[in-house]
Automatic annotation (TrEMBL):
SMART domains: AAA (SM00382). One of its GO terms (molecular function) is hydrolase activity. SUPFAM superfamilies: P-loop containing nucleoside triphosphate hydrolases. Residues 45-194 form the AAA+ ATPase domain. This is ArgK protein. The lineage of its organism: Bacteria, Bacillati, Actinomycetota, Thermoleophilia, Solirubrobacterales. Keywords: Chaperone, GTP-binding, Hydrolase, Nucleotide-binding. It comes from Solirubrobacter ginsenosidimutans. Gene3D superfamilies: P-loop containing nucleotide triphosphate hydrolases (3.40.50.300).
Length: 308
């Protein structure tokens, strides 16, 4: 099956094209077909939600509960679970991992594990492309990543809305402040709210940390993802509310530009980035390009601008 045919099927809302589309996007030797797929799929109206947080915080369990909530709202959902174990990352990350629970016969839910990017918590170009292509056929596309410090910015670049999941009693609130990543979350979830006082303290610490930073109003939501769940409907509502406030066309243009730059760095490394005059200069240059250009064209223009 060629890329543009698969992209066209997704664009027509044919969710059964998802597995073949992902196979193609993950084939390293099929870059041209993969680009054709993403172009043919076009700009999707689906909501791309990034879910990130440290290993074992409860992301997959949370998604199992969110999937049930979204299905009860008749949304179709694709989940791209970025698997850190596919990189050399040491066994410490694994251990007590829950899988995302779902009904395998439900054709409105598609779950796929994908290889991680170069950095721990980073996104491979195939994951960005997959999110862009799938959001034409699914109402919600989730990208689940293991977040460790700075790497969360990768998922923020690919998603419309970013949920950062925080473990009670972990001191994560202070970590966030130190790492300067309070800019990343659109919604903060304190998971394992069933732990009681520790969870309430984490919620309080996060609100205090956000208050100290001033500026953006980020909801902090306590959730328990173990049955009987609490806070899940509120989380789904908060995601909808964030989405409703977005300029989606602008967000998609921004995502395409960032994806092109990420692809460029993937191909040409930090040296290539320096030849563009650094990340800031490259971002400024991209901001001057036609907003309608797709990722492959932006990448070509970036390469041409430095004579590659
Ligand atoms: N008490 C309690 N335990 C939870 C909750 N959510 C998840 N857990 C437990 O936390 C552990 C890790 O959950 P996962 O959902 O696998 O966490 P994860 O963030 O997806 O983990 P990785 O994918 O390995 O990074 C499991 O033992 C879960 O049962 C919760 O709301 N309350
Ligand atoms: Mg998980």
């Amino acid at each position: 099956m060629n890329g543009s045919a698969l992209g066209a099927r997704l664009r027509a809302g044919d969710r059964t094209a998802a597995p073949a589309a992902l196979n193609l996007l993950e084939t390293r030797t099929a870059r041209i077909e993969a680009a054709a797929l993403v172009s043919a799929a076009g700009d999707g109206a689906g909501h791309i939600v990034g879910v990130t947080g440290p290993p074992g915080v409860g992301k997959s369990t949370l998604l199992s509960a969110l999937l049930r909530e979204w299905r009860s709202r008749e949304r179709s959902i694709a989940v791209l679970a970025v698997d850190p174990s596919s990189k050399r990352s040491g066994g410490a990350l694994l251990g007590d991992r829950a899988r995302i629970e779902h009904d395998p016969a439900d054709r409105d839910v598609f779950i796929r594990s994908m290889a991680a990017g170069e950095r721990l918590g980073g996104l491979a170009p195939a994951t960005r492309a997959a999110a862009q292509a799938l959001c034409t056929a699914f109402d919600v596309v989730v990208i689940e990543t293991v977040g460790v410090g700075q790497s969360e910015t990768d998922v923020a670049e690919a998603a419309d809305t970013v949920v950062v999941v925080v473990q009670p009693g972990s001191g994560d609130a202070l970590q966030f402040l130190k790492a300067g990543i309070m800019e990343v979350p659109d919604v903060l979830v304190v998971t394992k709210a069933d732990l009681g006082a520790t969870a309430r303290r984490a919620e309080h610490d996060l609100r205090a940390a956000l208050g100290a930073l001033g500026a953006r109003a980020v909801p902090v939501l306590p959730v328990s993802a173990l049955r009987p769940t609490t806070g899940i409907a509120e989380l789904a509502d908060a995601l909808d509310a964030h989405r409703a406030g977005l300029d989606l066309a602008a967000a998609r243009t921004r995502a395409r530009r960032l994806a092109a730059l990420a692809d460029f760095v993937h191909e040409h490394g930090e040296r290539g980035l320096r030849s563009l005059g650094g990340r800031r200069a490259a971002t400024r240059w991209l901001a001057e390009q036609d907003p309608a250009l797709d990722v492959p064209e932006l990448l070509r223009r970036l390469e041409r601008s430095v004579g590659h």
